[in-house]
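Quick illustration, no need to memorize.
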Amino acid sequence: MKSTVNTLLPILICIGAISCNQHKQTPVVEKTQPQSATEIVSKASDSANAPSTAHEPKGYVPDEQTAIAIAVAVWTPIYGKAQIENEKPYKARLSNGVWTVMGSLPAGYNGGTAVAEISQADGRILKVIHHQ
């Protein structure tokens, strides 16, 4: 049983660290008595299911720079790095919890640019298009 606990403990610590916000530290359990694997799993599960408020006010996409980074990461494999680089500077605006990110064209150029719509709350990609 002791070897099972020793094997599970590092795994559960990693799971707890991944499931917690990046800004929170995994709580250190200081106990002089050995814990059973059931106790460890139960505590990890409780901490993973605890509500988090760190990202609630602004969501997972809190600002223009984050929205642009996500959009570029999505556009690049679809339209190619050269095409997306040519559409700099990128612009992003937030409306009703949705970031709309678009590329731009130099003055006098005809054509369209890439557009992405991204949920502010959870970072989901809602729409990706490229105007012609």
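The chain has four helices and four strands.
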